[in-house]
Structures are given as C-alpha cells and as structure tokens.
Amino acid sequence: MKSPTPIRVDHWIAALLLLTMAFIAFVNVLSRYFFHFSIGATEEITINLFVWMTVVGTGIAFERGAQLGMVTFYNLFPLKMRRFLVVLSALLGAGLFVLVCVYMIQAIYDELTLFRATSAALGIPVWIYYAGVPILAVFVFRGIYRGARTRLAALGEET
Length: 159
Known about the structure:
Number of strands: 0
Number of domains: 1
Mean pLDDT: 94
C-alpha cells in the first residue's frame, strides 16, 4: 500500500497566496463592474503577494529540477563531472539566494532606520512587504538541497 503524501507547507503557502490574489482581483473586478469604483489597494497587495509566491515557487522549482538548465550539454559529461555539476549548481543557486537575502535584509534595515517609508495605498510600512522574501527563502534553500540530493541519488543509481 502506498503511503500518503505528506502535507507540504510550501505548497499550502503557494496555494493560499494564489487563492488570496485571485480573490482580491475578483473582488476588485466586481467592485469596478457594479460600483464603477476600483479598490486601489488591491494592486499593491497582489503585487507583493506575487513576489512572495514567486519565492516559494522558486523553491518548489529547484526541488523538482524545473529551473533553467542546460540538460543537453549536461548529459554530454561523464558521471563524475555530472555529480560535480549538480553540487556546483546547488551551491551557485544557494549563493544567489544568500545575496538576495543579504540585500533584502539591508533594505529592511534601511527602511526601519532611515527611510521609514509607507506603501502608497494602505500606508503599511514597506519593510513588512520586504520581510517576506528572506523569511520565505527558507523554502528556496530547502528546495535546492532536496533537488540536489534527488539528482545525486539518481546519478548514484546510474553506476
């Protein structure tokens, strides 16, 4: 008997973010149609939720091996070199997201200490929107690790 699929927090977060974005957009469409009034804050919210969903989705893509890659070129290399390339790819991907997190944390610090900017429509401090990126990057790092582990295991089976 096949074991049940475990509940994945990253899948649920992506689904809830997408559901929320669709609901907000739907309410705005209804508002424009029936009341001839557009809710200005909907654009601000959906754009920021889209950024957060993209970060979570990036982790899922890394795990599934769905990120951009040069598969044809990769397949030309011998097995040992492919293992090295999997590790190198994982390290470069993780390095990129470390830089994203560092710069985003710097931007949050700047917003908290220097600028204290608020969003145009809702007046929410901008750093709150920024904070989602380094927090949700946990799923990216997990996806990179799981994806590399899966590809290395598949290469181990080739021998």
